[in-house]
Amino acid sequence: KDATCIIIPDPTQLQAKSVYRQHQLVHLHETCTFVLVDWISAGRLSSGERWQQDSCEVRTEVYVNDALCVVDAQSFQKDLLDMDWGDDTQFHSVCTVFLYNINDAVERFEDLQRKLCETYTAVRHVKDDSKDQDAALHHLLNQQLSSGRVVCGVSTSNAVKVVRLVANNNEDLHRILQHCLEPLELRCYRERITATKSSPPIHVPAKS
User: Which of 70, 52, 69, 51 minimizes the C-alpha distance to 60?
Assistant: First the structure.
């Protein structure tokens, strides 16, 4: 009760011909605070390796007061992930964040989702951008501190928030996660950010 559990690892890097299975089972009390980052990276891109694993399956189950709230299961198929998504876009990182009882961080992820969608929708401003975190997010996205494309979706499953992030490169996700999880006051991933802005995404030719 009244505990805090924060699991924020570096990404799991899938190497060529690897077989990876992961099953996470989480039991929470309704009074606790919880964050789990589950992050998969495409492989050793500088060596031309990209989504060349034989298989990767991850499954996370979250219970609150012994009631099942979330079942998140993903299967990473190399034939799908290795393709180019038009306009030379390649996604090299897939990240899922589970949050419970951390409203400030959830709000930042929702703001990120909204700002990323504004480019493609008729609705441009639905909230007051005068907040400090909105200014910081604007700086992150619009001042080219991030270098590639990022996709973000936020959903709710029985009071547990689930955030899905897909990005061109790990550096962009380091910056985004550091910003969105800043309310935790843990300096999340700050030691991974050593440059003023992210390096350009690496483009790896699709395997024929």
Answer: 70
Answer yes or no: are the C-beta atoms of 11 and 22 closer than 8 Å: no
Q: Give the separation between CA 166 and CA 135, rounded to whole angstroms.
A: 23
- Collapsing DSSP to helix, strand or coil, 45 comes out as helix
Segments of the chain assigned E as strands:
4-7, 12-13, 19-28, 33-41, 55-64, 67-75, 93-100, 150-157, 160-167
Task: Identify the residue whose tokens are 């480019």.
Answer: 119
Q: What is the pLDDT of residues 141-188, one digit of tens each?
A: 654 455 577 889 999 999 999 999 988 888 888 888 988 998 888 777
| Residue 127: both structure tokens together | 């909230």
Q: Measuring CA to CA, how many Å separate 99 from each of 26, 47, 114, 164?
A: 12, 35, 18, 12
Cα of first residue to Cα of last residue in the chain, in angstroms, is: 53
The letter for the amino acid at 100 is Y
What sign has the CA pseudo-torsion 58, 205, 173, 136? negative
Q: What is the tens place of the pLDDT at every residue in 73-124?
A: 998 876 555 555 555 567 788 999 999 999 999 999 998 888 887 765 555 4
CB atoms within 10 A of CB 110: 16
| Tokens describing residue 191 | 């030691």
Q: What is the pTM of this model?
A: 0.81
DSSP letter, residue 18? -
Q: Taking a C-beta distance cutoff of 8 angstroms, is the pair 42, 93 a contact?
A: yes
